[in-house]
Design a protein that fits this description.
By secondary structure, the protein is α+β, with helices and mostly antiparallel strands. It is built from 7 helices and 4 strands. It has a 4-stranded antiparallel β-sheet with strand order 2-3-1-4. Strand 2 and strand 3 form a beta hairpin. Helix 3 packs antiparallel against helix 4.
């Protein structure tokens, strides 16, 4: 994309000033969360510059190359096979007495593709555990939840998606 922009702008002062203005608008007005978003915005600016400069054939060729590259890159990425979630389990000790961390981890491990304990808080009144887990099937999440609730009926389970959705 940068090579295409430089090819279009070359030594034109008007186009280079227009590019600076467009990039400043993108930088200060757009809430960019992912690097791919910035790439697409820069690509749109490049196509707009190419069409505005009267280089329609070069712009169409560049657009086709960009489209092929984006398609190939996205196709080569693995599909989202598993979902990564934050799991928080909290329970008051008065309702269960004590808790066994190993039993909770074994239940979660049995139904998930990976488990990572992030935080464990235990006091006289309650305990709270935070995990990052990988799920490849939503039904397994329900099975894990049911087993934990059977073991600790007063437990509160919270599942939060850890991916960045737009």
């Amino acid at each position: 994309t940068t090579m295409f922009v430089i090819t279009v702008v070359k030594s034109s002062l008007a186009l280079s000033l227009g590019l600076v203005g467009a990039l400043s608008i993108v930088r200060f007005r757009a809430a960019i969360k992912e690097p791919e978003e910035l790439t697409y915005l820069f690509l749109n600016i490049a196509i707009g510059l190419g069409c505005g400069a009267g280089l329609s054939v070069l712009t169409i060729i560049a657009f086709l190359i960009f489209t092929f590259f984006i398609w190939f890159t996205n196709r080569s990425k693995n599909e989202l096979e598993e979902q990564s979630l934050y799991l928080t389990i909290s329970c008051k000790k008065e309702s269960v007495g004590s808790f066994d961390l190993n039993s909770i981890i074994s239940i979660i491990t049995k139904h998930t593709s990976f488990v990572k304990l992030k935080r464990s808080d235990e006091s006289k009144e309650a305990f709270e555990l935070s995990f990052v887990i990988g799920l490849d099937d939503v039904q397994k999440m329900q099975l894990a939840k049911d087993e934990i609730i059977t073991l600790y009926p007063a437990a509160v389970l919270t599942f939060i998606d850890s991916s960045r959705d737009i």
